[in-house]
Design goal:
This protein has 169 residues and is mainly beta. The chain has two helices and twelve strands.
C-alpha cells in the first residue's frame, strides 16, 4: 500500500493507502491514464462499475473489525476522486482479497464471488466504494464496522459476481 494525501473540501489533509499493484484510471474520458506507481494506473471516466447490493451485507462488530472512524476517513479522502481501479487476477492475495484502498484500520477490498468470474479483470470505481461505505456506515456499533456483500460488476467485457468488503487493513 502506498500513501496518497488529498486535500479535502474543508482544506484539511487526508491520507489513504492505495494498493500499488492495482491499475487506477482518473479524470475525464478524454484524458490519458496516469501511472501513479509501478503497475498502478488510475483510469479516466466511469466511476461506477458495480450494481446495488441485493441483500444487506454480513456485518462484523468485533474488536478486530475496522474502525468506523477510519472507514469514514477513507471515503472523505476519496470524495473528490473520479475514476476506477482495474484488478487483474494476479492482484489478489492468498486469502482471495485484493485490498484496494485503506485508511488506518479500514480497507476496502474485493474478491471474486464465484468460479465463473475468477480469472477476469475486475473494475471497482471510486463511487462504488463511496456508495457501499456511506450506505452502511450508519450500521456501526461501538465504533466498529466490518462488512462483506456480493454484487454484480461490469468489467467492460462481461458481468462478474464480486464480493466487496470493509476489512481490517
Amino acid at each position: 500500500m502506498v500513501p496518497r494525501t488529498f486535500i479535502n473540501a474543508d482544506g484539511t489533509d487526508s491520507t489513504i493507502h492505495v494498493n500499488r499493484r492495482l491499475q487506477f484510471t482518473q479524470g475525464s474520458e478524454s484524458t490519458r491514464p496516469t501511472r501513479l506507481s509501478k503497475r498502478v494506473v488510475f483510469s479516466p471516466g466511469r466511476v461506477e462499475w458495480c450494481g446495488e447490493v441485493a441483500e444487506d451485507p454480513a456485518t462484523d462488530f468485533s474488536a478486530s473489525a475496522p474502525s468506523a472512524e477510519d472507514c469514514q476517513a477513507l471515503i472523505n479522502s476519496l470524495g473528490d476522486q473520479d475514476g476506477f481501479w482495474t484488478l487483474q487476477p494476479n492482484d489478489f492475495s492468498s486469502d482471495g482479497w485484493a485490498r484496494i484502498v485503506s485508511s488506518g484500520s479500514c480497507a476496502f477490498a474485493a474478491r471474486y464471488a464465484d468460479s465463473g468470474s475468477t480469472g477476469n479483470p475486475m473494475r471497482i470505481g471510486t463511487n462504488d466504494i463511496l456508495f457501499y461505505t456511506t450506505r452502511y456506515l450508519p450500521l456501526a456499533q461501538n465504533g466498529k464496522l466490518g462488512l462483506q456483500g456480493t454484487v454484480q460488476c461490469n468489467n467492460a467485457e462481461k458481468m462478474l459476481f464480486v464480493t466487496w468488503g470493509l476489512l481490517s487493513s
